[in-house]
Amino acid sequence: MTKPLEQILKDTTGITVGIRDVITLHGDASYRTYSRAQLDDGSSVILMQMPAGKASASEEITNFTGTMQEPSFINVQRYLAGLGMPVPKILGYDEERALMILEDLGDDLMARRVEKADAETQRHWYGQALDLLVALQEKTKAAKTGDCIALKRSFDARLLNWEFDHFREYGIEARRGKEMAAADRAIFDRATRAISAQIEWMPSGFTHRDFQSRNLIISNERLHLIDFQDALIGPHVYDLTALTRDSYVVLPDALIDELVGRYAERVRRDVDEVRREYDLVTVQRKLKDAGRFVYIDRVKGNPNFLPYIPTSLGYVRAALERLPELAPLADAIAPYVPEWS
Length: 341
Description:
Layout: H1 5-13, E1 19-25, E2 33-39, E3 44-49, H2 72-82, E4 90-94, E5 99-103, H3 110-114, H4 119-142, H5 157-176, H6 182-200, E6 204-207, E7 216-219, E8 222-225, E9 232-235, H7 236-244, H8 253-266, H9 271-298, H10 309-321, H11 327-333
Antiparallel strand pairs: 1-2, 2-3, 3-5, 4-5, 6-9, 7-8
Helix pairs in contact: 4-7, 4-8, 5-6, 5-9, 6-9, 6-11, 7-9, 8-9, 9-10
């Protein structure tokens, strides 16, 4: 017999007050679902329902070879909280129902603050996010590995190439209803594998993997990290790219240049080197995103991300224009991307 929710809260968190209402929240592209339980004493908690089995983990391949003894979210949260990073507290977990009870940080996503904001507001919050990113990289670099799953898997060539192929399969072939011509496919494969090889050699460390405006919540005017369960070892510039090449919020070029330069200064690296890495990762990340948005529509039945495909592909085109050696890749993709015509 299934336990009532109030009993689960009592058993896992010690909360004994009743539940006044449960409100379903928007969960983006994840298989996880979220709800807010409003309690009789006026407080609230977040309920994160994870699906059973394979769907509870990332669908993308990684090189982790161990056995997870607990959900990745719990594992990574414990590591980040131990470093003093601003992440939601885990109040309880019902393993039988795969139900996690989290601290309620509210609904004030950074995306809502910056999407249609004036230049000064955008500059403020993206500056705060950059500070958080640098702190994340510094603290995780100085910390011991421990048992954190994120430090036992990485963006290797296998995963990077899988993501490139994900774009070809969904962003081109599924979306356009035709395969790439053999000559274009050969150029695509050769160029993307070369990019993956370069990314593998970039300076690397703890990478959130989706460090963008919808995964940063403002609580008490302070940014908090969420959706970190797929973290791994990746290039340092990856999270910078995710933040500033956000599919949902398009920033002015001047602000992007300022943030990239500020990041390079903070981490004591040559800005031109950082910018080149940033552009290479932009090509990889945003092609993957464009394909992923089609996949989410065709496989998960969620078309809400389709409007962001042109933005993602626009980022790719801009990056390729700064990487003249990748002109053959741009030419090979162009016939299948009407947004570029």
